[in-house]
Amino acid sequence: MSDVAVGQEHHGEVHDPYPGLSPHTSTGVSHSKMGMWIFLASDCLLFGAFISAYLLYNGRAQQGPTPEDVINIPFTSTSTFVLLMSSLTMVLAVSSAHRGDERRLRLWLVTTAFLGASFIAGQVYEFTTMVHEGLGYTTNIFGSSFYSLTGFHGVHVTIGIMLLLIMLGMSLRGRLPKEKAEVVEVIGLYWHFVDVVWIVIFTVVYLIHK
Amino acid sequence: MAIVEAPQPLTIPEPAQPESTPMGVFQRPTKTTGWRSWVTTIDHKKIGKMYGFASIVFFIIGGVEALLIRTQLATPNGTLLSAQVYNEIFTMHGTTMIFLVVMPLGVAFMNYFIPLQIGARDVAFPRLNAFGFWTFLAGGIILNSSWLLGGAPDNGWYNYAPNSLVVFSPTHGIDFWTVGLITTGLASLVTSINIITTVINMRAPGMTWFKVPVFTWMSLVGQFMLLFAIPVLTAAQFMLLFDRRFGANYFEVSQGADPLLWEHLFWIFGHPEVYIMIMPAFGMTSDIVPVFSRKPLFGYKVMVLSGIAIGFLGWGVWAHHMFTSGMGPVSVAAFAVGSMTIAIPTGVKIFNWMATMWRGQIRFTTAMLFAIGMFTMFTLGGVSGITHAVAPADTQQHDTYYIVAHFHYVLFGGAFLIFMGGFYYWWPKIFGHKLSEKLGHWNFWLMMIGFNMTFGPQHVLGLQGMPRRVYTYLPGYGWELWNMVSTIGSYILALSVLLFIINVVYSRRKAHAAGQYTCEPDPWDARTLEWITPSPPPEFDFWEIPEVRDLDEAWHRKYAEDENGRLVRIAKMEDVMDKPTGRIPHMPSPSYWPIVAAFAVMLIGYGIIFNLGLCAVGGFLLFLSVVAWGVEPSTHTELPPPEPSTPDSGESGAVREIEEVGANV
Q1: For position B19, what pLDDT does the model report?
Q2: Which of A210, B61, B565, B642 is the most buried if burial means most Cβ atoms within 10 Å?
Q3: Nearest Cα residue in chain A from B226
Q4: Do A24 and B660 touch (CB under 8 A)?
């Protein structure tokens, strides 16, 4: 470790002699990874509040359509599967990043973003269908709590897709070398979190509805 | 050594300006003076100062609102304010004081002193820190601009639904409230992530958890609570916003909605919020009392553990705000017991402060007076708080002035008093000169008299049955005397705040006349690590990251025990403090993007209220600034070439730490 590391700052790259491990923090975990974990802990409570509100209002709608009328479990199961598969490709992206295999990194980043976008497309289709079946955002208490909860999740996925595309751009410009693989890993944490939240939402909203 | 002996500003050789601008539009700003250095700064000390300044400005706004309230209520049938304006004033007073004064004032101290207390050169995410400040300011501006843009929120700081729906409050006021506070909530979120990461990850070598100064510890606990509390409020505010703006049914009772939903969500945030505000105050008191008692803090570990205990128990008490809501006897009993339990760790703290003073060599400086004032007033507030935990009594007190008296005793008497003490204690550290002690004593006593005159009588008024939130009252209930006393007290309180501002200006003039940095580096014979740096500290805080061996590191560098166990001075602070090494630590450059991103957030906020098209513009700008944030280089300036004679293997690690931060987030 020498001053060369701090001397070459033109391109925003830091030459980390210990990729994946930060020996200069009290815990050995890098700031960005720690920060992401802390953020995700907080985000749990945001979803927690929306899920609680949904559960509280479950079955209390004064008029239809009710969940039975509009929910299409086979369709959403498929899009759930797509989203969960994107976690797999995200893992492959992180692994490629750590190996310094930039070609595969880009491939898996694109695949993950594509799978995420397919999920969002499915959600758009699902929402459109539901509106056609008479469940607007303002129709009843179910509509409001359903669209808000799943919509918030959709926004999270969309932000994730944007982050993936920004990383893709960085990689194409040579800004994601092996030494910065942790950036991919940290965004990956976010992506997996969004998937895990969806498992909860899928269970609560689609599988145990009244 | 030169900086110690001569009262001169630190002269730091300017790094050579680079010839080329390698990143084109993404080059980082370089100004270190003038207004541009402030809007682009990512230095935790400058950001801390800006938090402090902004909070004081908001404090004056909130204080004027308070004076209007008290003037209206001074006599029966007051005519100064109409009912509607009164509603808006008391809503804005509460919201401002909580979200724009006490919380950010705590953050101001945390921002400035946590890195110094743990021996770090900055926070973990310097740019995020700047973003947090500008977003907080944006939220404050959104909220306060409601006065000019069609009316302020008028439903109280708790904004109970469904009373906050359009049908009952048709102006945009409550939209300003939700959007403004979602914005400050975003600021709180990023700041809490930042501070938590900083404390967990950036402690100096040797600083194990039980060597961390109490202020840092308590701030950490408070920020953890904030981390988990703020998203709940944000979610509730989104629901309210969607109801009001887009016709959702979260609080529409005719659609089967439950009014208790808002109350629960709000108070799940709202009660931890109380501890979020008081935690840094507890920590500050625990740092100040030992210094002026010349004794170590009594029961340091117990202090820390009781703080953590409050951090946990604080989550199990929220429904004591809802004893009259009809939520059922089991809930009431459980929350009554929970609320009484939390008095135990709080009581431990009060006893430990007293035990710290016991047989100490007490110096009654202004800071110490404020610390003593804090824990006596806080005790009074705590005792009236216990009476709220007794559910049957609370049913009587609910919505009376007794409640108003209680929470002013804990928030003003607890948090704000010690923030004043913090100003007096740390002013020499921040600005290099003390505040006048003489004016300070006047400041303290006037504030104590004014405060107790204002809020003491409100206990009586409350027990006499005077309800909160009424804009006037009829003569003949026996409320006239105490209302008048309370109003006179509020003007004395205002006078004491004015005296503080006069003190700031006067001491500054005096110090500048005598050459600005008139104060020795360790004016109070202090104990914690921030005092081993020069006052004010250099931009990078420490020339050399200190090696920590003891709790109260600074003290143990100065004092030791002789063979009889008596305290002996072994060194002067001037000799054991951090000194220039000749090698300037390399810090990340300022950045434009935090303020641009915060401006984008503000555009989105106004867009939600007025015109969704503006949201699109703001969203696009936000996306651009996030990209720019990601790709801008971590620094603009070149490093001076390493000196071959200096072996720097030890230090470059610390330097690199900051580099990594600048590069990543």
Answers
A1: 42
A2: B61
A3: A42
A4: yes
Cβ neighbours of A185 (radius 10 Å): 21
pLDDT in tens, B111-149: 999 999 999 999 999 999 999 999 999 999 999 999 999
Of B22, B656, B665, the CB nearest to A5: B656
Task: Please give the Cα distance from B660 to B508 (Å, whole number).
Answer: 38
Interface residue B161 vs chain A (CB under 8 A): no
Contact at CB, A31 and B664, closer than 8 angstroms: yes
What pLDDT digit, counting tens, does each position of A15-53 carry? 443 344 455 788 889 999 999 999 999 999 999 999 999
Does the beta carbon of B634 lie under 8 angstroms from any beta carbon of chain A? yes
Listed in sequence order, the residues at least 6 apart from B3 whose beta carbon sits closer than 8 Å to its beta carbon are B10, B534, B580
Q: Is the domain defined by A43-207 classed in CATH 3.40.50.10420?
A: no
- B1-34: b or e for each residue (b if 16 or more CB lie within 10 Å)? eebbeebeeeeeeebeeeeeeebeebbbebeeee
The structure tokens listed for B532 are: 């081993």
Question: Max CA-CA distance within chain A?
Answer: 70
Within a domain: B524: yes
Q: Domain containing B223: what range?
A: 2-257+520-546+575-664
DSSP per-residue letters across A66-134: -HHHH--HHHHHHHHHHHHHHHHHHHHHHHHHHHT-HHHHHHHHHHHHHHHHHHHHHHHHHHHHHHHTT
Is-contact B102 B415, C-beta < 8 A?
yes
Domain positions in chain A? 43-207
pLDDT at B586: 80
Which chain B residue has the Cα nearest residue A38? B193
DSSP-derived secondary structure letter, B339:
H
- The answer to whether B528 and B114 have CB atoms below 8 angstroms apart is no
Q: Where are the alpha helices (DSSP H) in B471-572?
A: 480-513, 553-558
Q: What whole-number distance in Å separates Cα of residue B586 and Cα of residue B15?
A: 10
Interface membership of B203 toward A (CB under 8 Å): yes
pLDDT beyond 60 at B276? yes
- Cis peptide upstream of residue B162 (ω within 30 degrees of 0): yes
- Nearest CA to B190 among B47, B94, B57? B47
CA of B56: how far to CAs of A94, B102, B103, B382, in Å?
47, 10, 12, 26
Task: Domain count for chain B, please give it.
Answer: 1
What residue type is assigned to position B553 of the chain? E
Query: Rounded to an integer, what distance in angstroms lies between the CA atom of residue B52 and that of residue B57?
Result: 9
Cross-chain residue pair A61–B656, CB shorter than 8 Å: no
Torsion of CA B285, B387, B274, B101, to 10 degrees: -80
Residue B78 included in any domain: yes
Give me the CATH number covering residue B185: 1.20.210.10
pLDDT band at B635 (very low <50, low <70, confident <90, very high): low
Phi/psi of residue B570, each to 5°? -110, -15
How does pLDDT run across B650-659, given as a tens digit for each residue?
333 344 344 4
Element (H, E) at B273: helix B259-293
Q: Least CB-CB distance to A42: which of B23, B228, B634?
A: B228
Q: Within an 8 Å CB–CB cutoff, is residue B575 touching chain A?
A: no
